[in-house]
Design a protein that fits this description.
With 81 residues, the chain is an all-beta fold. It is 0% helix and 47% strand. It is built from no helices and eight strands. The protein has a four-stranded mixed beta sheet with strand order 5-4-8-7, with no helix packed on it. It has a two-stranded antiparallel ribbon with strand order 1-6. It has a two-stranded antiparallel sheet with strand order 2-3. A hairpin with a 2-residue loop joins strand 2 and strand 3.
């Protein structure tokens, strides 16, 4: 992940995985449609994360289009467009 001069901050204070608060130690990631990592946060309080900076990957990447997706194969939340 490479910090850039443009970013938005994401947070969530009520995040669940399988109907339970997101476990401590979970990794929240933001990735572009091309799978470039643009943000990452380790959960330290169950069910909460952030503020997580999500960096703009390029001028044609609309950060506002990111939406949360739970990937069930691991304790991971990823934002994908």
């Amino acid at each position: 992940m490479t910090p850039t001069s443009q970013w938005v901050d994401y947070y969530c204070d009520v995040n669940t995985y399988l109907q339970a608060p997101l476990p401590v130690g979970s990794i929240v990631e933001a990735r572009t449609p091309g799978d470039l990592l643009v943000g990452q946060f380790a959960v330290t309080t169950a069910g909460k994360y952030g503020f997580m900076p999500v960096y703009r990957a390029s001028t044609d990447f609309a950060m506002t289009a990111l939406t949360p997706v739970i990937i069930s194969s691991s304790l991971l939340t990823a934002f994908r467009r």
